[in-house]
Amino acid sequence: MKDNNWKQIVQMHGTLRLFCNLAIRKTPKGEALSAQEIDLMYHVALSKEAVTPGMLTSTMGISKTMISRLIDGLTQKGMILKKKSTTDKRSYSIVVTQKGKKEIDNAYQYYMEPIYRLQKEMGKEDLETLFSTIEQANEILHKSTLSTF
What we know:
mainly alpha
């Protein structure tokens, strides 16, 4: 192996994977919506501007195909609506329905509990430092993967 630090890199990768598994909750069995569907609705509900599928591809870091599947599923479940563009008939934005907003409210505490626990145990300042570093890493990794989405 060319990298003399490969063992350390493997260990770091394992630490990152464990953090993700502990901090990002899986969808409970029997739930109607997946964690990715909830995440998509969070992005739409919290945005100050109209959200398009292309924007979601970029902000969520997943493929156009996956975004389309999530949108189709959420539309069928009545959680979101596709709002056609008045200027471009091929384009549309996404709006969360009342039913979707209720689902977001119900899921919020379950999915956010690990972050609240980190804030309580680490303190607000350390948590902000952690997430600032994660955002920096995301930007670096996002640049190298933009062409794959």
